[in-house]
Amino acid sequence: MRPVRYMVDQPASVRPRQRFGDIGMDPSLIAAGGAALALLVLVMFGGERPQAPPLASQAAAATTVAPASTRGVAAGTVITDCPECPAVVIVPVGFFTVGAPESDLDARAHEKPMRGGSVRRPFAVGRTEVTVREYSAFVAATGRAAPACPGLVTDAAMPQNCLSAQDGDAYVQWLAARSGKSFRLLSHDEWEYAAKAHGGGAASSSKPLVAADLAPANAFALHGMRGNLAELVSDCWESDDAIANGVCVKRTAKDGSWLDAPAQSRPSAKRAVRHDLRSERVGLRVARDLDLLERGD
Asked: How many whole angstroms separate alpha carbon 58 and alpha carbon 67?
């Protein structure tokens, strides 16, 4: 299982600013030195850097601060790596919060407390949930058993439901082999970052289930991040201490589905799903790591 791609940031202590006169230097020299330093930082780091994240206690309603610019391929670029591959959108770097604030009365205990994190390297996220058409190409190419459960969706444009965590793992491995790119499932925190979209999350599309690209899009141009289907991620369920042969007994699914109450269609909402369970409420969305050229490293 790939490592989580986020870092938790601790706020720096703040000291009072000194006046120029207190340190005995010519203000004009200080201004010139500051300009030179700013130019040096721009040359070294290539542009705007993320701002410091708000404290969780000060961010009850906030999800992120403004994103930094992305070097290499620009954030918002849509990439399709092969005819059968889902289109992915490059999301920017930036700070965000994970979980729900204490003021969220719909949140369950396992969604709290809120904590801070940051995405320091851009990556790509499926523009929509994986569709019936896309997953069917995988089944045809590999001979894997087709999805089956009560409530199975069969229209090619609809998001594919009745997928287990085992199905999701096999699918992204096939995509990686088919395309030569690093396809995988999102981590829990990456999913929440993508859903919150720097405060530009979409409205819920909880009822009815709609075609994947007709679900509302958020500020990152990702469709269906609220409602439609709950989406499998790579993380084991948080209380799952029993790992059998290196496989999570229970996996995490994020968000709610069109069959769930609206309170479940929130970015911090999650549920435990047995690793081999196929449910009409559950589908998946892919992630893809960028290569060196795409990142601009």
From this structure: 19
Residues counted in the chain: 297
Of 78, 101, 106, the closest CA to residue 90 belongs to: 78
- In single-letter form, the type of residue at position 226 comes to R
Cα gap 56→61, rounded to integer Å: 10
* pLDDT single digits (tens) 123-144: 999 999 999 999 999 999 999 9
User: What is the CB neighbour count within 10 angstroms for residue 241?
Assistant: 8
For residue 147, what are its two tokens?
């999805």
DSSP structural state of residue 159: B
d(CA 262, CA 227): 8
Greater confidence (293 vs 229) lies with: 229
Domains present along the chain, CATH in parentheses? 88-295 (3.90.1580.10)
Cα separation, 272 vs 138, in Å, equals 26
Peptide bond into 208 cis (omega under 30): yes
Contacts of 293 (CB under 8 A, 6+ apart): 72
Q: Give the integer Cα–Cα distance in Å for 100 and 108.
A: 9
Spatial CB neighbours of 282, under 8 Å, sequence gap ≥ 6: 161, 162, 163, 229, 230, 231, 232, 253, 257, 273
Pairing of strands 230-236, 250-254: antiparallel
β-strand pairing of 123-126 with 282-284: unpaired
- What's the pLDDT tens digit per position in 224-260? 998 899 999 999 987 655 666 677 889 999 988 888 8
Q: Rounded to an integer, what distance in angstroms lies between the CA atom of residue 136 and that of residue 163?
A: 12
pLDDT at 1: 43
